[in-house]
Amino acid sequence: MSFSEKWCQFFDQPAANLMLRIAIMVVGIALVAFGIALSRNTDLGLSANSAIPGVINYATGFSLGTAMFVFSLLLVLAQIVLLRREYNPLQLLSSWA
Length: 97
Hints:
By secondary structure, this protein is an all-alpha fold. About 65% of the residues lie in helices and about 0% in strands. The mean pLDDT is about 80.
């Protein structure tokens, strides 16, 4: 059995691995926030999806990475609030849902 088959089989258990999926999502958001902060600090500029955290960075004392992480989590929470009953917790990792 190949690695990808084992990986898919491992993530086919929806309820048992929900906490692992959430942990992977949080790590992924943290990596994206780090990449955006690195891009800005090297004067490469900001993309459109990091403009709001960039403004938060200038307006408050938060670092760009922290602002991006919190902003991304707020977007996930906004999705949950907007969808309400139609929201499926497996959508936290939409690539596997």
